[in-house]
């Protein structure tokens, strides 16, 4: 039976207090169905792009957004397949978020994630060969358990999750993630499955009220640190304390972003009771997904000219919903 060692540090406690405050705000917010759908769509796009990028996929965020919308993208087929598989897997998790993460569902998740990328005999199946975890210099930093021990280690991990109902959801998420990538139960796809499966545990434990607190953006923002933190726990003889702190830091970062989005919507409603047109809604969705955009980008995505962009965005800037930086053709827009 897995018996992870860790302590509740001051860093962890402070992060949890701040997260609880933001989650409380989220639960009180007036979340309409269209907004919920939009947030979930953004969560899928961000998570898929970041998680596949961590593993070396070269598709841009815009290309991921296009694939998620069933649009054609010019790119290598294996790169597109990896992203499409990840999109399907994340959507499947959202559809099954009220169910427990069982071994059967975990294997199904891997099968979806690696469909068409591995031999059928390896999709959704634990490995039967020895594998190794290497760093960026191709140096072995971890030797996972022998193939004959994988099923037992995974069973022990899932049983620990099942019996850890009194543990904090962040602790469960963090330890599952780390132990999974250390076991490395599959011949490929371990990182992607670990990240999305640990996300599922947050849904299962009711810790993510809008099902949008993705950690992948946080991990991808400093991929080197992500791998270093995983290895640090191994080097410390399995003391998970600093890894748990790191995951808590990432969830705090994520919940701040969701709260910011909701506050923007709240300001939108209050700003002179402005009624957004469908095109303005589309524009806000674009800015939400891309962060910062220039007029040329907006023109390209919305298939309108600069004059129309200015017509749509000027009232949003005036009401404080959108921030304008720069002048003339160098102008950039972002959500307030």
Give structural notes.
This protein is mainly alpha-helical and 336 residues long. The protein folds into two domains: 10-264, Fic-like fold (Orthogonal Bundle), CATH 1.10.3290; 273-335, Winged helix-like DNA-binding domain superfamily/Winged helix DNA-binding domain (Arc Repressor Mutant, subunit A, Orthogonal Bundle). The chain contains 14 helices and five strands. The protein has helices spanning 10-28, 33-54, 61-68, 77-95, 103-114, 147-162, 169-183, 190-204, 216-221, 223-235, 241-270, 278-290, 295-302, 306-318; strands spanning 133-134, 140-142, 292-294, 322-325, 332-335. The strands form two sheets. The chain has a three-stranded antiparallel β-sheet with strand order 3-5-4. Strands 1-2 form a two-stranded antiparallel sheet. The longest helix is centred in the C-terminal third of the chain and has 30 residues, at 241-270. The radius of gyration is 21 Å and the shape is globular. The relative contact order is 0.12. The mean pLDDT is 89.
Brief descriptors of the model:
Arc Repressor Mutant, subunit A, 2 domains, mainly alpha, globular, Fic-like fold, two-stranded antiparallel ribbon, 3-stranded antiparallel beta sheet
């Amino acid at each position: 039976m897995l018996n992870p060692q860790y302590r509740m540090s001051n860093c962890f406690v402070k992060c949890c207090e701040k997260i609880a405050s933001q989650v409380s705000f989220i639960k009180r917010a007036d979340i309409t169905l269209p907004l919920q759908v939009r947030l979930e769509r953004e969560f899928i796009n961000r998570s898929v792009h970041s998680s596949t990028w961590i593993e070396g996929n070269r598709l841009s965020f815009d290309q991921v957004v296009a694939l998620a919308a069933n649009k054609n993208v010019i790119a290598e087929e294996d790169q597109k397949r990896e992203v499409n598989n990840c999109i399907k897997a994340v959507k499947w998790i959202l559809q099954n978020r009220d169910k427990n993460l069982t071994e059967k569902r975990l294997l199904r998740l891997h099968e979806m994630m690696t469909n068409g990328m591995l031999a059928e005999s390896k999709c959704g199946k634990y490995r039967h060969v020895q594998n190794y975890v290497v760093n960026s210099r191709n140096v072995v930093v971890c030797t996972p358990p022998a193939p004959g021990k994988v099923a037992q280690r995974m069973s022990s991990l899932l049983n620990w999750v099942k019996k850890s109902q009194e543990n904090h959801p962040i602790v469960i998420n963090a330890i599952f993630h780390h132990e999974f990538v250390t076991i490395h139960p599959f011949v490929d796809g371990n990182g992607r499955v670990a990240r999305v499966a640990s996300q599922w545990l947050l849904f299962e434990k009711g810790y993510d009220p809008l099902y949008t607190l993705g950690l992948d953006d946080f991990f991808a923002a400093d991929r080197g640190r992500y791998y270093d933190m995983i290895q640090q726990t191994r080097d410390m003889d399995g003391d998970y304390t600093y890894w748990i702190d790191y995951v808590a830091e990432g969830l705090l970062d994520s919940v701040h972003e969701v709260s910011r989005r909701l506050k923007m919507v709240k300001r939108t409603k209050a700003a002179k009771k402005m009624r957004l047109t469908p095109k303005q809604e589309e524009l806000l969705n674009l800015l939400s997904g891309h962060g910062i955009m220039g007029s040329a980008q907006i023109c390209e995505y919305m298939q309108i000219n600069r004059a129309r962009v200015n017509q749509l965005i000027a009232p949003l800037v005036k009401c404080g919903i959108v921030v304008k930086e720069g002048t003339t053709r160098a102008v950039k827009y972002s959500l307030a």
